[in-house]
Structures are given as structure tokens and as C-alpha cells.
Amino acid sequence: MGTEEVKRQNDSVLSFYDESVDGVVTIMSEVPGMVECDGVIVALINERKEIIRQLSKALAGQRSLRHKDFKTLITSCCSAQDKCYHEIHKELVNVLKSDKKVVSSVRESLAVYRESLLSDGDARRAELRQYIEKLILRHRDRGKEVQRLLQGYRDEQARIIEQLRTYFDSNKAVRMKDLAGFVQDVEQRQLIYLEELRKRKEYVQQLREENLGRKSEVEQLLDGFRQERRKRHENK
Question: How far is C-alpha 174 from the chain's CA centre?
């Protein structure tokens, strides 16, 4: 093998190693953003609940006979909203749990990959390299989908709060008709959001299952490398 070919292979190995490390760093760097977005959502939910409490109190203060109807409508609407959040939060928790496992798997794979450079087995090493790349890519895609779900829910809560606040800012008596219209608008948007949530959750689940399969294949490759190392040591 010529000097140029050796240099080319070394550069390729170093480039792949750096890219894999960067992939691990990126996975971990995205965690604070998702956690922060989740914290903002919790704050918005609490703000939404407080505004609704004030609106209900305002209706009762106006001696509206329909303030109980409002509570029934808004409770049903908010229960569906909260259910959406719990589903998204569950996906976030799953991603955070799998982050550490994926990072650990990639690090171990890279360690074995580095050791394998001293031996033959180019085909198997290339296979391991391909699996590492796909494992990182799939997990990052899954994280991005969960981030989109969080951001979409956050934006919807902010919009609901903005609409609710208009009833206070208008300096007019709170009308049940307006509030009923507001609930209807939220429910219509919610139907669209729920369908989007369903599709994104299916995609996230697909990525999760692919990652589990990918990790299993990587582990099989790692076992193969370990067995080869043991045989080399035994034959020395």
C-alpha cells in the first residue's frame, strides 16, 4: 500500500472519528433546549389555569347563570390539552433516557473501531462505521421530532393565553357567547394539532424501533470484534 493511500485512509478514519464525536456532542447539546421548552410549557399551563380561574370568577361576579356552563366547556377543552402535553412529555422522557444509552453505545463502538484499525477486517469495520453513522442520525431525527412537538404545543398554549387575555383587556363584561366561541376555536385547532401529534408520534416510534434494531446490530458487530481480539491474543 502506497504512502498516499495510507494517508488517505488515515484521514478518512480521523474524519469519521471526529464526525462521530461531534454527533455525540450534538445529541447532548440538544437536551437543554428540550428541557427548557418543557419548562416554558409548564409555566404557560399554570398561567392558563390562573386566567381561566379569573374568568370563571368574573362570570360569577356578574351573576351570570352560565358561568357553570363555561367551567364545563373550558374544563373539557383543557383536559384534552393537558392530555396532549402528557403524551409529548412522555416522548421527551423517553428521548432523554435513550440519549445516555445511545451515547454510551457510540463511544464503545468508536473505541472498538479504533482498536480494529490495528488488525484486518476492513469489511466488518466498514459495516460498523455505517451502523454508527445511522445510529447517530436516527437518534438526532427522533430528538428533532420531539422538539417540534414541544414547540408546537408551547406556541398553542401561548396563543390560548393571548386570546383569554383579550377578555380582560377589552374592559367589557365577559360574555358567555364570546367564551363559547373561543372554546370552539381552540377545539377546532386542537383537532388539527392532534392529527399532527398522532403522525409525529408514529414517526418518533418508528425511529425509536429502528434505533433499537440498529443498536442490536451494532452490539452483534461489537461482539464479533471482541471475539476476534480474543482469538488474536490467544494466538500470540
Answer: 39
